[in-house]
Structures are given as C-alpha cells and as structure tokens.
Amino acid sequence: MMLFVKIAQWPLWQRTPIGWLQLKKNKARLWVAIAGIGFADLLMFAQLGIQAALFESNTLLNTSVNADIVLRSAQYRDLSLANTFPRRRLFQVVSLPGVASAEALYIAPVVWKNPQTRRKTQLTMVGQNPLHPALTIPEVNAQREALLQPDTFLFDELSRGSYQNVLQAVTRGDRVTTEIDRRTVRVAGLFPLGASFATDGTVITSQENFLRFFPERSAGQVTLGLIKLKPGVDPAAVVAQLQALLPPDTVVATRADYVAFEAAYWAETTPIGLVFGFGTVMAFMVGMVIVFQILATDVQNHLPEYATFKAMGYRDRFLLGIVLEEAMILAVLGFVPGLALALGQYALIRQAAALPIAMTGARFAFVFFLTLVMCGASGFIATRKLQSADPADIF
C-alpha cells in the first residue's frame, strides 16, 4: 500500500503507470483479458468482413458492365431473378441523339458440370455480343473472337470449387470440354471475376450460344440493356429523356445507380445484413463483459489502496483514470492478436469460399474504435462501486 502512496505523490510526468503495474502483477488474468478481447475483435472482423464480401461479391458482375446507362425489367429483383424486358426498347433508345450504342445482355443461372470433379454446380451464364465489349474485364475483351465458335465459353478462374487441373490445361492451350444441361461445351479461355453468395462463378459466351441453352427464350427477351453515350453527353439528362420515352415495363438508371440498387437489395431486402450486424453487436457485448469482469476483479482486489487514495484527498476522477488506463492498455494489447487472427481468417475464407474478402483501412479503424469504446465503457462501469465507496467503511 505504501508503494501506491509514493507513486501517487510523484509528478504526473514522472509517475509510474499504476494501471500497467496492476495489470502485469497477475499475468494469468492479463493473458485471459487479452485473449477475450482478441476473440471479440476476431468475431467483429469476421462479421463485418463477411458482410462486406457479401455486398461486393453480389455486385461483381453489375460493376463490370460496360455501359453509361443500364436498362432492366420493372420486375428485376437481382441478377439471380432478373426477369426480362422487350429488346425493341433498345431500338427506341438508339433513336436519341446522344446515344452511341445499345447492346443486349442475356443473363441466367445454369447447371454446369465441373470438368475436374464431374460434380454439378450452379453458375451464372452471360451471353454478349462478341463484336462489342459488354464488360470491362480486359481478359474477356481480349478473347471475344473465341466466342464466335459454337458452344464455346470463357470460364471464371476465381469460381468456387476445385479447378486447378482445368485452369492449368486451359492455360496450356489444351482442349477442355464439359457439360451444361447435358450439352457438351468447350472452355476456350479464362477471366477473373469471382463467386458470390448466389452462384459459384460465371461463364461467358455469345448471345447465339446462350440462346441455344434456353430454347423457350427468344432473342427478344433481354436481361439488361447496355447504353453507351457519345462523348460529352450527360447521363442524367439521357436518363430523364428515356424515362419519359419508355413504358413502365422498363427501368432506366445510370450504371452507378444500377449497382447501388443491386447492393441495396442485399442490404435492405434480405435479412443477411441484419444478421451480420446483430453478430457484430453480440461480439461487442461479449468483449465488454469479459473486460468488465477483469477490471471489476482488479478494482475489488485493490480496493484498500484505492480507499487510501480517497482518504488522502484524491478525487474519483484520479481513480477512474487508473482504471481507464488499464482499459486502454487492454484494448491495444487485445486488438493486436485479434487483427492478426482476422487477417489469417480472411485468407482462409478467400481460399475456401472464393469470396472477395480483405482488410480495409475503414474496417481496421472502426473495429479499433469499437475496441476502445468496449474497454472504456467496461472500465467506467467497473469503477461505479469504487466511486460510491467510503474509506471509513473499507477500513
């Protein structure tokens, strides 16, 4: 106790950090606190990372369309349930002075047999005009001529599943064939895009090849209309013109608004965003309980020393500063292993689930802020008993 009195009497800039001394005195409890905070941070990183990967993966194809304005059906929900609109709408669009081109894009889910494992899985099939780049993926545009061949496809090399041998064979230039709906097709090239929560990958072909797999669907039933404008034309002005020109069965939006619509569907309409948000809150609460238990026990064990400080005239603010010092030290020490584990976790998820998950500066800062709040709030609550304690009662 005399050590605490002497330490408290030193000038602030010379004073030994009391909080750190108290923490390291019981190393077992310190390691338990670090492990608990690290685990809570790991959970928060996981929930926020997977949620972000969900939104990004489900808009990968949307963000890759080569268009200034996108037309879609009024019944469009997302790419997995896009519905169609009449192709003649594109002919109406071309009549506007500022429009350079209007191309049809066909999209539908399809059952694909993995050439390596021979197991069936669902992919997204995209049918484009090989003579006009429909996507902004350089690898696709460099191989568009190959799509002029019947039953020829480009395959997403970042698809979910075991494709190592297939990727190597295609890279070597070997002939690789497989089946889509019992029809033999050839994989002529690769491109990078990625899987999503709705599908395991993407295959791209020509419009003619696409329609061969959907005989019940005519060429007049279009999934998306890709509108390119002439240089210097304002997309917002053309959108307003098209909204007045086209009937209600077709929705007109800029490319950015179209991508935002797709992301909003997954964030607001589906319960997935709510689930991951709730998981983040629960991880925060778990960490807060762990830190509170550690700090409350520490306060209880050093209650006589704190009572001595109060008897000497030190205010509650000074005592709160000691506990908050412990809380901030625990926040930093616990965040480091939590961050390291999260980076390893992200790498495993990218490898196993083929999802675009990575650490971002915004997520790093947000979780660190939550950790500081978590530990700081726990420290404040742990000192409530100390603030109401009477030195005379303790002695």
What's the topology here?
Layout: H1 2-9, H2 18-25, H3 27-57, H4 60-63, E1 69-73, E2 85-86, H5 88-94, E3 99-113, E4 120-128, H6 138-142, E5 152-156, H7 164-172, E6 176-180, E7 183-191, E8 202-206, H8 207-212, E9 221-222, E10 224-229, H9 235-245, E11 250-254, H10 255-269, H11 272-301, H12 303-311, H13 316-353, H14 361-382, H15 384-387, H16 391-394
Parallel strand pairs: 4-8, 5-7
Antiparallel strand pairs: 1-10, 1-11, 2-9, 3-4, 3-10, 5-8, 6-7
Helix pairs in contact: 2-13, 3-11, 3-13, 3-14, 11-14, 13-14
Task: Give a quick rundown of the structure.
The chain has 395 residues and is of the alpha+beta class.
Count of folded domains = 2
* Total beta strand runs: 11
Rough outline: elongated
Kindly estimate the percentage of residues that lie in beta strands according to DSSP: 15-25%
What's the tally of helices? 16
Strand line-up across the major sheet: 6-7-5-8-4-3-10-1-11
Q: State the share of residues found in helices, binned by percent.
A: 40-55%
If you average the pLDDT, what whole number results?
85
Largest sheet: 9 strands, mixed
Distance between the termini: 13 Å
Q: Based on helices, strands and strand pairing, what is the structural class?
A: alpha+beta
**Low-confidence segments, ≥5 residues, pLDDT <50?**
1-14
Order of SSEs: HHHHEEHEEHEHEEEHEEHEHHHHHHH
Cα Rg: 30 Å
